[in-house]
């Protein structure tokens, strides 16, 4: 049984105190869980930046978790596969005819504008391609976004009440004759809409919308009452506001007052499993702790939401050499260069293939979110952690460095207790 030593907790507290006095650091929450229970959870800053009267962020504060929702969606798909309701070999076009006419777009990573160079896709996209992000679906990486304005992408556009998925697919298609792909399905790896389309597949396979499915099969069984696609009353009462830094890495923060996603419950008709979920740090740690418990015990917990066999698939590398080269190129500016060669992709998250010195071990799943959020789950050590912030510009290097420092202090402060003798080892 792993726990946080008294000196280890003191070290993390001291770093928290230091960060709380730095105007260059936004409001955030850092939390850690072991297999048996949570071992650290503390927030810093106000729910509205610069406004102490708005209340302090804490473990129950709601955050748009953005791409941290991807592994939840992928786990849900694995649940359906276990129940025989979904096959990894199912062509996506069997469920959504729009995918019968995809096009391969050249220079898709160079410009956010529609390319005039494209050709019909030859390969059939399957559920497996969505699971492993080898579908060819991609986010444009070169859109010149003015971050001090409403976001302009299919996630943030108004949602159709009559045909929300169809409208979303039309936004992705844009001016192309078919849904654009970066490469033939199965050929490489790309970061993009795969998790969202997988969520729509879950809806078709289960007969529920994604909110209903996740509440019934994951959130309610784990008592995750502050996780939803909706800003429910319990979420709204303790919800952080998005903030904005004009000077990357060094400037102070101010409230961000623009459109992000749809917030009116009466107008939420689309459930994007790759980016729309709201959750608290305590809830997300509950989810990660449950996964640790399934992997750690001699027998699965009686309330296990998925089998150990399926969970091992959830945390298994999935890419060939071309896909691995693509994800490593994608992550070069997001993690220390020395760790890049050790990264693979599993299901809705990256995974380490070697131990990171002084940090997470081989086989750890991890990912990050658009509004500067991070998590990792380390089954070997028996810990998982979250660092949740909520600001633009996205993936700012400040929080990445802070996350690394927290992780190093955490691992330096962990100790293991022998359950029979009670002796720390």
Description:
InterPro entries: Beta-lactam-related, Beta-lactam/transpept-like, Diverse_Enzym_Activities. This is Beta-lactamase/transpeptidase-like protein. Residues 12-393 form the Beta-lactamase-related domain. Helix 1 (6-20) packs antiparallel against helix 11 (397-413) and helix 2 (70-82) runs parallel beside helix 5. A seven-stranded antiparallel sheet has the order 3-2-17-16-15-14-13, with helices on both faces. The chain is built from eleven helices and 19 strands. Helix content is 28%, strand content 17%. The longest helix has 17 residues, at 397-413. It is an alpha+beta fold and 425 residues long. A hairpin with a 4-residue loop joins strand 16 (373-378) and strand 17 (383-388). The model is unreliable at 421-425 (pLDDT under 50). The termini are close together.
Q: Please report which band the strand proportion falls in: under 5%, 5-15%, 15-25%, 25-35%, 35-45% or over 45%.
A: 15-25%
Report the end-to-end length measured between terminal Cα atoms.
10 Å
The oligomeric state of the chains shown is single chain
Helix and strand content put the structural class at alpha+beta
Largest sheet data: 7 strands, antiparallel
The sequence of SSEs as H and E is EHEEEEEHEEHHEHHHEEEHHHEEEEEEHE
The dominant shape is: globular
Overall radius of gyration: 21 Å
Helix share of residues?
25-40%
The overall strand count is 19
The number of helical segments is 11
Which whole number gives the mean pLDDT? 93
**Low-confidence sequence ranges:** 421-425
Strand order of the largest sheet: 3-2-17-16-15-14-13
Protein name: Beta-lactamase/transpeptidase-like protein
Domain Beta-lactamase-related: 12-393
Pfam families: Beta-lactamase
């Amino acid at each position: 049984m792993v726990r946080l030593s008294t000196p280890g907790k003191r070290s993390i507290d001291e770093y928290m105190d230091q960060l709380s006095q730095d105007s260059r650091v936004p409001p955030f929450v850092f939390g850690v869980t072991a297999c048996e229970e949570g071992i650290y959870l503390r927030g810093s800053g106000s729910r509205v930046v610069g406004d102490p009267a708005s209340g302090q962020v804490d473990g129950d504060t709601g955050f748009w978790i953005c791409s941290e929702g991807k592994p939840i969606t992928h786990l849900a798909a694995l649940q359906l596969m276990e129940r025989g309701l979904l096959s990894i070999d199912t062509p996506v076009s069997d469920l959504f005819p729009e995918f019968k006419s995809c096009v391969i777009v050249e220079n898709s990573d160079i410009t956010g504008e529609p390319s005039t160079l494209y050709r019909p896709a030859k390969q059939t996209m399957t559920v497996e391609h969505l699971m492993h992000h080898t579908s060819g679906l991609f986010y444009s990486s070169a859109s010149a976004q003015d971050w001090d304005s409403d976001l302009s992408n299919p996630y943030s556009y108004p949602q159709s009440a009559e045909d929300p998925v169809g409208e979303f697919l039309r936004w992705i298609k844009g001016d192309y004759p078919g849904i654009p792909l970066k490469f033939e399905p199965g050929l490489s790896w790309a970061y993009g809409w795969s998790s969202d389309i997988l969520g729509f597949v879950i809806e078709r396979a289960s007969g529920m919308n994604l909110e209903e499915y996740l509440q019934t099969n994951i959130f309610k069984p784990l008592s995750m009452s502050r996780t939803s696609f909706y800003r429910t009353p319990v979420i709204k009462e303790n919800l952080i506001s998005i903030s904005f830094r004009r000077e990357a890495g060094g400037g102070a923060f101010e409230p961000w007052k623009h459109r992000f996603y749809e917030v009116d419950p009466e107008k939420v008709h689309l459930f994007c499993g790759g980016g729309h979920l709201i959750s608290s740090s305590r809830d997300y740690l509950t989810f990660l702790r449950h996964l640790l418990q399934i992997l750690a015990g001699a027998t699965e917990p009686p309330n296990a939401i998925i089998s150990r066999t399926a969970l091992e698939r959830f945390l298994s590398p999935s890419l060939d050499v071309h896909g691995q080269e693509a994800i490593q190129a994608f992550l070069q500016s997001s993690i220390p260069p020395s760790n890049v060669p050790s990264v693979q992709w599993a299901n809705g998250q990256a995974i380490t293939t070697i131990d990171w010195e002084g940090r997470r071990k081989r086989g750890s799943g991890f990912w990050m979110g658009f509004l500067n959020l991070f998590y990792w789950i380390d089954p070997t050590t028996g810990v998982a952690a979250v660092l949740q912030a909520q600001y633009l510009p996205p993936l700012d290097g400040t929080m990445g460095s802070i996350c690394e420092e927290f992780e190093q202090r955490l691992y330096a402060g962990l100790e293991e207790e022998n359950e029979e003798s009670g002796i720390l080892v």
